[in-house]
Amino acid sequence: MSATIETEADSGGQFVTFQIQTELFGVPLADVREIIRMPDLVQVPLCPPSLEGIANLRGTVLPVTNLRRVFGVEAVAHDDATRVMVVSRAGATTGLVVDRMARVVTADPQDIESGGAMDTTIRSDLLRGVIKRPDGLIMLLDPSRLTDMGIGGSARDARVTPRGRAGGPADPALTQAAKADEIQLVSFEAASQEYAFPIQDVQEIVQVPGRITHVPKTQPHVVGVMTLRDRLLPLVSLRRLFALPEATVDEHSRIVVVSLGSGSVGIVMDTVKEVLRVSRSLVDPVPALFASGADGGQFEAICRLNGGQRLVTILSPRRMFHDAALRAAIETAQNADIAPEDVMTEADTGSQQALGTDDEEQFVIFRLCGEEYGVPIATVQEIVRVPDDLTRVPKAASFIEGVVNLRGSVLPVVDQRRRFGLKEAERNDRQRIMVLTIGGVRTGFIVDQVSEVLKIARDTIEAAPELSEDQAHLIGRVANLTERERMILLLDPAHLLDTGELATLRTL
Questions:
Q1: Read out DSSP for 128-142?
Q2: Structural domains of the chain ordered from first start
Q3: What is the pTM of this model?
Q4: If you average pLDDT over residues 300-326, what whole number do you get?
């Protein structure tokens, strides 16, 4: 085990004992895998109140239950004595948070009395017996009940009701004809100017590594290389390419990976803004005078939004990198003879090593209350800012923030924090509305921040522990990125709303 425990004897029925408040409890030694310090935890919504979170235990997702919450004891802050006891029973494993460990004791069967008749504050269904000693009682807990609580919750803990599966007719507003008249763009910002790539040109979006390896004898636009998918990825600064003022790369900066012939190029952006779905009627050719400028040939078109008050310049990798000298510099960077240990790798940016396109999945990653969530990229129609003129709906469910006019269609908007029962937050510029279609209803979900588009190797994705029926439907998988000490909860969009909630939204 990971902790040293004082042993009273080496034979007989042995129990690991621990304290909750002033009470002493025990579980069979054979069911205790190890004892660890309090790990970093990921909070999971829609779970029993007793669940403290999930942790990464050497590559395995471990649900962690707080026994104080189970017993209805007043919560206290964790301290140096707090431990997590990892208990396995019938193939199920859970971590139990205890105040402090005691020792291992031995008890003969005749020393163990039934717990059902004892006058204790602990639920009798959690007890398998009691050891009476001159210095007090040791209440023996039933490991199977404890692991059930950590994996599936209990009737007493449950806060939510099971959801029905989402279903319904296809959204008539999203017919093939309507889709053909639209284009989808990923927009970003550089020097306070807004640009965009057609989404089909964008392979993924990753964080800027802490260190970029510079390549000698290349054009100034090429800032260096990193490794991505076991290949060197040349990085180009959009600011330098467009002769814009230099700026410090910060936590909001992103690398947009675009296709270029048989290879790829990473373009360093100030920040990624939105995923837009716009009508082709709002896209105009670049004006002839503008296109004749030094950089004008790199622009594909101009998109007019908000009645022409917001202009987005659409870029094309083919146009941006048509210059032979620049392409040669990019190829030089891509084929540079650099020691692998000198290059910042994809693991350092939050991506995972891929085994091939069939062995990975792509997700849009967003944040809520400091935790990371992901939805399959194919389910996300667009990502837009939270408008100021969001219209409230009288007598609507509490999690429905209101409706917005999205290109002539009414879009119901759900506050995802409220939907998950999380602490509410003030509106800010980082928040976004992710637009998905669920059961034929196009719905927007307000999230704290959309951080990146990430390819995740399938061998890092595992089934999430079934902490409650509601959570099991919604969060069926977890991406456990151990190299980055990062755990991403993967949502099933089909279960973001139940059938009753969908019916409510259809009326809006």
A1: EEEEEETTEEEEEE-
A2: 6-152 (2.40.50.180), 174-349 (2.40.50.180), 355-506 (2.40.50.180)
A3: 0.66
A4: 83
